[in-house]
Task: structure prediction
Amino acid sequence: SQKIEQNSEALNIQEGKTATLTCNYTNYSPAYLQWYRQDPGRGPVFLLLIRENEKEKRKERLKVTFDTTLKQSLFHITASQPADSATYLCALATGAGGGNKLTFGTGTQLKVEL
Amino acid sequence: GAVVSQHPSRVICKSGTSVKIECRSLDFQATTMFWYRQFPKKSLMLMATSNEGSKATYEQGVEKDKFLINHASLTLSTLTVTSAHPEDSSFYICSATPSGSYNSPLHFGNGTRLTVT
Result:
């Protein structure tokens, strides 16, 4: 069966440390993978997109890697801050022939503590 | 840019009534919009793909007669929950991308919290 799993439901880290979130998938061959941030009671907000032929993507304190052999993406937040506390969702492009249809992972709730 | 507005943000209705949720793309045209449902502390579950000028495509297990979708213009899609029951209580979120964009990020509305009493 097809699955998208994120390593842990919740992750607590100390301010200033690097948070690393994992997204593993089975029985998908996505052309690209995206990461979103969701705050309580709000819709997800797009953070980064990485294509299957890209190994790594960076944006400010964020870094995403994509390993299509391992079927895994890692999402890193460096120098984490309490304001980074949120739920982070990975999403795969799962529409036939590409397109914008996304299937989301289970999410990881990150809490950055002082 | 690329703002998606969803209305209402919260609605409480009685069992058996119908509720309409609107999703508007404010500064772009969207041929396709997506409707998701989210349970507490769970991920987003895609319900249907809304296509302007044609019928929506529903995911397996989603009742199309229960969740009516209309996409009458390039900036508006509506989801109507018909004959709502308490088990329909959930957080409903729509998303869209500009027409013609492909393999692009989705822009989400801020969701509608539906409570059926």
